[in-house]
Design brief:
Elements (H helix, E strand, L loop, with lengths): L3 H14 L3 H30 L9 H32 L2 H6 L4 H30 L5 H6 L1 H19 L7 H16 L14 H5 L2 H14 L7 H27 L2
Helix pairs in contact: 1-5, 2-3, 2-5, 3-5, 3-7, 3-8, 3-10, 5-7, 7-10, 7-11, 10-11
């Protein structure tokens, strides 16, 4: 449970973001527009021409958009758990300064997760609005799909934070994105059903947080039946969030307290 002091961490991040929000908001609108135009409309024209019945009974643009929504939330969460954490601990050492206050390790970590959640909500809501503008789904359904995307984004922020706080040097972060984030983006069901993957890799896709978010978001937007029961996916994502936070606490304490 968040504490009043953890909200002070959130407030500090919000004050910094107040000075930089213009650039990030522009890219938050531009990225989904470009993705949906290039992949959904451009590539989708070729896919629809070769699959008259569509994927899951809908056009490729409609199939793709919920997956990209979740993928955007996943990447945002991973980014918040990587570079911001490394900057706070090693580069700018702002987290060490915060620990000099009564905030404490738990308050700092919870405040970081609160702000990461807010960033995921921002980009996800913007993506949902763009989805609706592309007539993928009504605005209400598009906004409802933000729920699964938020869970995935928080899970990735938690897992990535736990990974980052164990690093002594930032060289591990590019490897994490190259071998974890990018493969998850490509092979967790956003672009095509995972049953088209080789049999040996399908179980790997099934355990990724993004797969569960994509299945739930797609069920909301186009009405498909998710391969995994939603309550199982939600429980799984909540467990990942808690596990990441638990793993992050000990190394944070060692690095930030004298």
């Amino acid at each position: 449970m968040a504490t009043p002091l953890s909200f002070r961490v959130f407030e500090a991040e919000a004050r910094v973001y107040r000075r930089t929000w213009r650039g990030s908001v522009f890219s938050s609108f531009l990225n989904p527009v470009l993705y949906l135009l290039a992949m959904g409309v451009g590539l989708g024209t070729l896919v629809d021409a070769n699959l008259p019945e569509g994927l899951e009974g809908v056009t490729y643009l409609t199939f793709l958009a919920p997956g990209l929504l979740v993928a955007t939330a996943m990447q945002t969460g991973a980014g918040e758990g990587a570079w911001k954490v490394m900057a706070g601990i090693k580069w700018q050492q702002t987290w060490k300064a915060r620990i000099a206050t009564p905030i404490g390790i738990r308050g700092l970590l919870l405040g970081h997760m609160l702000w990461s959640s807010a960033r995921v909500v921002m980009v996800s809501v913007i993506f949902a609005i763009v989805m609706s503008a592309f007539r993928v789904a009504p605005l209400l359904e598009s906004l409802l799909a933000v729920g699964p995307a938020l869970l995935v984004g928080i899970a990735m922020a938690s897992i990535t934070t736990a990974f980052t706080v164990h690093l002594e040097e930032p060289t591990g972060l590019p490897l994490f994105f190259r071998f974890v984030v990018v493969p998850m983006f490509l092979f967790s069901g956003a672009f095509f059903p995972i049953d088209q993957l080789p049999g040996w890799i399908q179980p790997v896709a099934l355990i990724t947080p993004m797969y569960h978010g994509v299945e739930m978001a797609r069920a909301i937007v186009i009405g498909t039946e998710p391969a995994v029961a939603p309550w199982v996916s939600i429980t799984y994502l909540l467990v990942l969030i808690g596990l990441g936070l638990a793993i992050a606490l000990s190394p944070m304490r060692k690095k930030l307290t004298p």
